[in-house]
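Following up on my earlier thread - several people asked me to post the actual chain instead of describing it. Fair enough. Here it is, all 124 residues.
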Amino acid sequence: MSLTGGNRNGVTQLEPMLDKIPAVAGQVGRPRRRPDALLADRGYDHDKYRRLLWRRGIRPVIAKRGEPHGTGLGIFRYVVERTIAWLHGFRRLRIRWERHDDIHEAFLGLAVCLITHRHVQRLC
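Reply from S.P.:
Thanks for posting it. Predicted structure:
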């Protein structure tokens, strides 16, 4: 996945993101190269993106525009929002000041290590 500016629409990175899904090993046989389903919010609600996912053999679970909330997707989305909030706890990641994306990714990896360490400490 590539880093993009904060003002870019996330849907522009849908296809590159799908291309970079790594193989998932663990079971006997050929490793899986694609997920069963892709959960997305209303920003991805367009027939173009649904067809793209179906062509790749991925079931789109996308909230419809104009329908009331309550599809159940928020339960899964909360995990993503919570993780982003944890990363924003690191001041250096809240606003991207680095010009080089490799430096930003290094700080991102360090933050993930620290977050994981804190959770493991609570378990011990």
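The chain is about 45% helix and 5% strand. That should answer part of your original question.
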